[in-house]
Amino acid sequence: MLEGDPVPFGGIGGASRIVTPSDVRNQVFSVVRLREGYDLAEVDGFLGRVETALSRLVRENEELKARLSSTPDCTALEAAPSPGARAVRIVEVAEEAADRIVAMANKEAETIVAQARRRADGLGRDALEKITELQRQAQETRREVMERRLQDLRLIVADFDAVLRQCFHEHTEHLLALLDGREPPGPVADASTREAAPQL
Length: 200
Prior knowledge:
By secondary structure, the chain is mainly alpha-helical. It has a domain at 7-138. It is 75% helix and 3% strand. Helix 2 packs antiparallel against helix 4 (83-180). The longest helix is centred in the middle third of the chain and has 98 residues, at 83-180. It is found in: Cytoplasm.
């Protein structure tokens, strides 16, 4: 393709500059993953048509310049539409398409960020609820364990009280028997009594 004279350009690629068919051919757009956007194939096809149109306009401009330099009377040429104006218009259309792509990308990025924040807030609430539930379950388990231990302690105290009462009763009987001059009851006294008793 013919490169020719550059065409004024002021949007794609940065600050105001001039664009050539080579610029259009080499223009690369950022690929955004995991979300909707312009079809890359359609964008590439459109840029290809822009490149072709620019090349044709540059070639026509060169031809017109050559004819103008060789023709003394250029009134008819001055009245004809300017190829440069047509090229500028094509570039403006390309700029508008690029602006739409950027605007849509920004909007989709904002939407993704908002969704991510909402999801994070939801996860935070879920985590807090789970932590609260776990704390409640832990407190309930601790309460049940304490109740079981307290019940076991009550049973131990009750058994100890019964044994203590029995021992006190036996000790009292033993003392009364000694005071009355009787053989004190008990496992030892009973055994000696049985050994001393006459055999029938």
